Amino acid sequence: MKNLIWYLLLGTRGGETRAKILLAINKKPMNANQLATRLKLDYKTIQHHVKILTDNRLLAPINNGKYGAAYFISEEMKSLWKEFGKVWAQFGNNLGKSK
Residue 23: which domain range? Predict the structure, then answer.
């Protein structure tokens, strides 16, 4: 799972957006619309990244597939939050700058 976090944040486009989603949801569970508003991103962009995070078991949805589904940090992600923090602390300010 540690390698997955590194890959999803640093090894693919959109890593910065996925990290911001995780940070926002860690503060307060939200649905895709709330995330789009909070992060000032397009709803479809949020849906795309939330699906990646959910498919990789980093987010846990309630009412998945339904409008207004709420997302929480998964138990697996909670156990790796320190690793995520290390990645974000080391690379967070530089994510998205190599585009």
Answer: 2-91
